[in-house]
Design a protein that fits this description.
The chain is mostly beta strands and 751 residues long. 12% of the residues lie in helices and 38% in strands. It has a 14-stranded antiparallel sheet with strand order 8-7-6-5-4-3-2-1-16-15-14-13-12-9. Strands 31, 32, 33, 34, 35, 36, 37, 38, 39, 40, 41, 42, 43 and 44 form a 14-stranded mixed sheet that branches. The longest helix is centred in the middle third of the chain and has 13 residues, at 285-297.
């Protein structure tokens, strides 16, 4: 089987099965500067693997050996040398880097049953028993023969397989990873999306790679990068990706761009990988980004035009560089990018992002990260309840994180001058292509940056919002919810069209593309517009109403289209003592993720307000603002707010990410201030953007609570410093919704 990455050759897999039952599968992948090699040798007896050895050499050169004999699985990797606690029985087999082994599990799928089927399977090259879900799609006949196609989901990865009539795997396609294994002659089973765009730069160049190239910043730090460029004389535009996650993994895109006439640079950020300097996350990226762009613009192989691309931290560094106005920077593609420090990570409107900050500290604890750590759970998640928070990193991770300790002490907006950039977006006049998803944990960055650039009158901004998590455009499913095959789109051609336009100054039809593409869940389709909110939308408001307790599905408040007159406030209580660590945090299992919530009739601390059943379908798309009038019995409290779709049977469905606010910052993020217990306050904050069609008969529901522990740190009810505070105060909340103090939620209805 030939292996392709982004449509370009990237290696091969060879599988041999002998008459005596012995077999060997060898895979070698070369993507940019990354090499992955894996080999399995073993023996079948009566269709069962009786023994095998799997040896995988990872990009960093580390070798993992997994053996199976006498019913025991043994792993040796680095300091690990042990038997695995697995009971391998009669499960079918599933190969990770070895497609033919997966024929076993595909044969176990009922192809006539066109619905998801969860099948427990043993993965020899991972040494694990997994439970992927398979959905038969259809049969397809080409010149080579007929193949049966299957979709497989092993969260968060989605794969398409094809099995020929002899039960050989002839296709393994992983769109989210741009990786494809395909047998000779079966290429017509899949279509290269780039073939539809002959106007875009074509892969006509041979490619050469320079590793560990050094540049020096203005203060003497050395930043190290791998450079993939056309193997031809001349000057070319530059695509720059800066990352704290290891330049080697980022360089995988290099051949795609270099073969099309670009120089691709993957650079380790300061203090990461081989780059020198202090690792203080986010704080040095403005100046370092400027220096990196200017360096790239002035090299002998550069024509002076630089664009940037990257996701998450790699999206943040683009904005950080852009506000410094380097002359070489002509455009950016910030994907799932965080905003300023007080609006997402490590603080979200003043609420400390506890789980996310500790999880990220684990990921970047070593100078060079282990990519497998992204999927591993926290070592001691049961310690997330530790107080005070100072020292919780050591309790949970087993070792302290210096920057995490610093984050806990930076409780004033002025503490983040190197991090923050949004006040300086007025300096940015270059084109930006914003990309995010409704369940992206950093979506608020895209939300805020788009709003600011729109308010500044920038016409050269484009936006894509998909039904995706932070690993955007990798799966059409989230847990138990499938958004359909159209949920994944071809972003490679979009990115290339972007760079062809702004770096090569080619006319490739970008002006014909809508400025906004957004996926509407519920009806599961894309909508195009020239603006966000959508140009055909108008604002609508639902007003909170109800009296007494609104805790749980048995005593909900109301959402009415008309403001209330005279009403007593609604009430609920938040007791930080009783905040429990959720089972999904202790034992995270992506396969069990769900967007459906079941609320008990009595749910202390959870307030629900819901509308009457809708008389006709209604689509909302755009910003959502909660205007809340409240009082509390404590000096401090938090509010978390989320819109839900309630179906006709009473099921609650999550449609996006919640907004949140720490009320000690009501008068500004310059410093926390105590509230006066019993005094009525007003807080306005945004629930994160989404697009949703509510069906006829469904209800709109507002979920209001004062905790999302342990994802976010508990508000203890005081204004003690969060690093050292441990006094706990119960918080009795009153939500006002009368004529004098109306509370409401405002959103955009699509016409």
């Amino acid at each position: 089987m030939a292996i392709q990455f982004s449509g370009s050759p990237a290696g091969e897999n060879v599988y041999e099965l002998n008459p005596d039952g012995t077999f060997k599968s060898t895979t070698k992948i070369l993507i940019g500067t990354i090499t992955i090699e894996s080999e399995i040798t073993g023996k079948f007896d009566a269709g069962r693997i009786v023994q095998y050895e799997a040896v995988t050499v990872n990009p960093n050169g580390d070798k993992t050996t997994i053996t199976f004999a006498d019913g025991k699985v043994h792993i040796k990797s680095g300091k690990v040398d042990k038997d695995l606690d697995l009971k391998v029985g009669k499960e079918p087999y599933f190969g990770n880097l070895h497609p033919q082994i997966s024929s076993s599990v595909l044969e176990a799928v009922d192809f006539d049953k066109k619905s998801p089927q969860a099948i427990k399977a043993f993965c020899p090259d991972a040494g694990a028993i997994l439970s992927p879900s398979f959905t038969p799609i259809k049969s397809k006949t080409i010149g080579k023969g007929t193949a049966r196609l299957f979709d497989m989901v092993l969260p968060p990865v989605q794969v398409t397989y094809a099995l020929d009539q002899a039960n050989h795997v002839v296709l393994m396609d992983v769109p989210g990873q741009k990786l494809r294994f395909i047998a000779d002659g079966w290429e017509p089973l899949v279509k290269d999306p780039m073939a539809d765009y002959p106007e875009l730069s074509q892969p006509t160049y041979k490619v050469t790679t320079e590793k560990a190239v050094k540049m020096t910043t203005r203060d003497g730090a050395t930043l190290v990068q791998d450079i993939v460029r056309p193997d031809a004389p001349g000057k070319f535009p530059v695509v720059l990706e800066r990352t704290p996650y290891g330049r080697v993994s980022s360089s995988t895109e290099g051949s795609f761009y270099a073969s099309r006439g670009y120089v691709f640079i993957a650079q380790d950020c300061r203090g990461r990988g081989d780059s020198t300097g202090e690792w203080d996350p986010f704080m040095h990226e403005r100046k370092d980004g400027y220096d990196a762009v200017q360096w790239a613009a002035t090299q002998s192989w550069s024509d002076g035009n630089v664009g940037m691309i990257g996701g998450s931290y790699g999206g943040f560094v683009q904005w950080a560089a852009a506000v410094e106005k380097p002359t070489g920077l002509k455009c950016i593609i910030p994907q799932v990018s965080p905003p300023d420090a007080f609006f997402n990570l490590p603080y979200d409107n003043g609420v400390f992002f506890l789980y996310g900050s500790i999880w990220w500290a684990k990921i970047v604890s070593a100078r060079t990260i282990d990519l497998s750590s992204f999927m591993s759970k926290l070592p001691n998640p049961e310690k997330l309840g530790t107080l005070p928070l100072k020292g919780i990193d050591k309790a949970v991770l087993g070792a302290p994180s210096p920057f995490f300790e610093n984050w806990l002490t930076r409780t004033h907006a002025s503490d983040w001058k190197g991090f923050n950039y949004e006040d300086d977006l007025k300096n940015v006049t270059i084109p930006a292509l914003h990309i995010s998803g409704w369940w992206d944990g950093d979506q608020i960055g895209t939300m805020l940056n788009w709003s600011i650039m729109r308010s500044l009158g920038r016409k050269n901004q484009w936006l894509v919002y998909g039904p995706w998590i932070h690993a955007f455009n990798t799966s059409s499913k989230i847990g138990d919810t499938d958004f359909g095959p159209s949920a994944l789109i071809d972003l490679d051609s979009v990115n290339l069209r972007w760079f062809d336009t702004w770096l090569k100054h080619k006319s490739v039809g970008l002006e014909k593309m809508p400025h906004v593409r957004a996926f509407v869940t519920g009806s599961n389709h894309w909508v195009d517009s020239q603006d966000w909110p959508l140009t055909r939308s108008k604002a609508a408001t639902l007003f909170l109403a109800g009296t007494g307790s609104v805790e749980g599905s048995g005593t909900t408040g109301a959402l009415n289209w008309a403001p209330p007159a005279k009403q007593l406030p609604s009430k609920y209580r938040f007791d930080p003592h009783g905040a429990a660590i959720e089972k999904r945090i202790l034992n995270p299992d992506p396969a069990k993720a769900t967007l459906t919530i079941k609320f008990p009739k009595k749910a202390p601390g959870l307030a629900l307000f819901q509308s009457a059943p809708l008389k006709q379908a209604m689509t909302i798309a755009g910003p959502i603002v909660l205007d809340l009038r409240f009082s509390t019995s404590a000096q401090n409290t938090d509010f978390f707010a989320q819109l839900l779709d309630v179906d006709a049977a009473g099921g609650y469905h999550v449609i996006g990410q919640p907004g949140k606010f720490r009320c000690s910052y009501l008068k500004g993020f310059d410093k926390p201030r105590a509230l006066t217990p019993g005094k009525i306050y007003q807080v306005k904050f945004r629930i994160w953007d989404t697009a949703r069609e509510f069906a006829k008969g469904h209800r709109v529901c507002l979920l209001l609570t004062s905790t999302m522990f342990p994802i976010y740190a508990r508000n203890l009810g005081t204004i003690e410093p969060i690093a050292t505070g441990k006094t706990i105060i119960v918080q009795d909340q009153k939500i006002y919704h009368d004529k004098k103090n109306p509370s409401s939620v405002t959103f955009q209805i699509v016409q």
